[in-house]
Design a protein that fits this description.
mainly alpha; globular
Length: 203
């Protein structure tokens, strides 16, 4: 199983990276909350631009729209670039993920990446979204921790990808998983200390 062989040329790779990054860096959480007249989402809760913090505005529809759009920008980047091959899709997918985490428009302060992670997964290995969802739902039911459910799913998905023959895609998601865990380090600290909020709890 070849993982490290990379056939896409440098100009094409750079083009995919730029395309994916610009698409991924669109801050839908901020855009949608401002359009809805609820202010700057960065000034409430955790200050994050993702769906979880948008939900703290009390508007579930805005949070759902943010979740969907943050995922679909990853899907779009991966699917469009994949027209030129799987390596192009991988490059654009990674760039979209990084664009969401570190958008140039917001001084590189973006979201935590789970929605975009799922979106890229949908674009490159659609069936694995079912695996991710099953793991998340099982962990959420047992522990009632959203963060732990997402972290567990991101840890297992690269292993399943590799075991089922998605070599290069598995490597991509292993890298994205490490970054996701780093972005969730505050959640991990709260989980270890027992202070992380459970699903359904306020705060």
């Amino acid at each position: 199983m070849e993982i490290f062989s990379w056939q896409l040329g440098l100009p094409a790779t750079l083009a995919c990276l730029v395309f994916g990054y610009l698409l991924g860096s669109i801050p839908f959480g901020l855009v949608l909350t401002r359009m809805a007249g609820v202010g700057d989402v960065r000034k409430i809760g955790s200050g994050n631009i993702g769906a979880t913090n948008v939900l703290r505005t009390g508007n579930k529809k805005l949070a759902a729209a943010t979740l969907l759009l943050d995922a679909l920008k990853g899907t779009a980047a991966a699917v469009v670039a994949s027209l030129w091959g799987i390596e192009a899709g991988i490059a654009a997918g990674l760039a979209a993920f990084l664009g969401h985490l570190y958008p140039i428009w917001l001084s590189f302060k973006g979201g935590k990446g789970v929605a975009t992670y799922i979106g890229v997964l949908l674009g490159l290995a659609p069936v694995m979204v079912v695996v991710f969802g099953a793991i998340w739902l099982t962990m959420a039911k047992v522990t009632r921790y959203s963060s732990l459910s997402a972290l567990t799913a991101t840890a297992i998905v690269p292993l399943v990808l590799y075991a089922t023959g998605y070599g290069k895609v598995a490597l991509l998601f292993a890298i994205m998983t490490v970054i996701t865990w780093i972005k969730h380090r505050a959640n991990i600290q709260r989980l270890l200390s027992g202070t992380e909020s459970r699903i359904g709890e306020k705060g």
